[in-house]
Amino acid sequence: MATTDQGGKRIFSLSNKQLEELIAAIEQAIEWHQCWYKRLLRSLIANVPACEEDLDDNAHALCEFGLWFNKLPSSSKNLHPYFAEIEIAHQKMHHGAKVLLSLNEANSKIPVNLLDQFHEDLDRVRYLFEAVNEDFSKLLHNRDPLTGANNRTHLLSNLREEHELAKRKSLSCALIMIDLDHFKRVNDQYGHSAGDKVLVALVKCITSHLRKYDHLYRYGGEEFLVCLPQTDLKGAQSFAERLRVGVEELEIDIGKDKPIKITGSFGVSSIRADDDIETAIEAADKAMYQAKESGRNQVCVT
């Protein structure tokens, strides 16, 4: 999955710590259900009395996972489309378990089709748990730990996929290289902690302008690369100008007497059908350096 797409900006807005907590909670949910399934087998096979909660019509809301899931705010449940499917599949699975336990307690024969259906529902819940966990784990692995932007781990492979898609469908695609102006001065004058706050603020500003299918990468120390699918060179130039203004208007609280302001230099290039990705990145980088040499705080296009 393209993790930043399916959850949109809601996923991107999560801090790495929040992502780690969410992943841990999902892993705990998987463990809870493994324990629950073992308990179910003890009742069905060894005739250990079933728990009252498992025989309740609201068993799905009374189990450990159900209690946790129902406390999640709607904003968290909207982070991944599978959360809605998990809720439905989880309830269906518990209903099937209740039917099996009720038949067993009545000393009635359990039809094979009911048992098979229950295991299909159980497998579906497990699959959804693991898929969500894998997606969030991939997102965490591919993020810059400071800013939350994508790191360079899969930058080239991701951009090549966008390039191939653009060629197949005859779509435009563009890149923007962004570099903060005089960033070294921030670190020298205010310290690296202030520099970190500036980078975080920059990424939040850029992210607020992105569409759900755009991609932001931390390319270097204070360099960032934006990929704009379905965008021609003129559109990318306009987009970069909006970003430039947004960055220029930032007032960043670094814990001093007054907030500091920053600017950035922006280089724009298109990903042409007959070029490779490295050539397109080099062109954006060249345009960015042209912006710096021309006075900074501006957009240049190649």
Describe this structure in words.
With 302 residues, the protein is an alpha+beta fold. It folds into 2 domains: 3-141, Four Helix Bundle (Hemerythrin (Met), subunit A); 155-301, Reverse transcriptase/Diguanylate cyclase domain (Alpha-Beta Plaits). It has helices at residues 3-6, 8-12, 16-46, 59-62, 64-71, 74-77, 82-105, 112-141, 155-168, 183-190, 192-209, 233-248, 277-293, and strands at residues 173-180, 215-218, 223-229, 264-270, 299-301. It has a 5-stranded mixed β-sheet with strand order 2-3-1-4-5, with helices on both faces. The chain is elongated.
Please write out the topology.
Layout: H1 3-6, H2 8-12, H3 16-46, H4 59-62, H5 64-71, H6 74-77, H7 82-105, H8 112-141, H9 155-168, E1 173-180, H10 183-190, H11 192-209, E2 215-218, E3 223-229, H12 233-248, E4 264-270, H13 277-293, E5 299-301
Parallel strand pairs: 4-5
Antiparallel strand pairs: 1-3, 1-4, 2-3
Helix pairs in contact: 3-8, 7-8, 10-11, 11-12
Number of distinct helices: 13
Q: Look at the structure and name the CATH superfamily of the largest domain.
A: Reverse transcriptase/Diguanylate cyclase domain
Oligomer: single chain
Q: Residue ranges: pLDDT <50 for 5 or more in a row?
A: 1-9
CATH class of the largest domain: Alpha Beta
Question: Biggest sheet, strands in spatial order?
Answer: 2-3-1-4-5
Secondary structure tally: strands: 5
Broad structural category: alpha+beta
Helical proportion? 55-70%
Please report the distance between the alpha carbons of the first and last residues: 32 Å
* Radius of gyration using CA atoms only: 26 Å
What's the order of the H and E elements?
HHHHHHHHHEHHEEHEHE
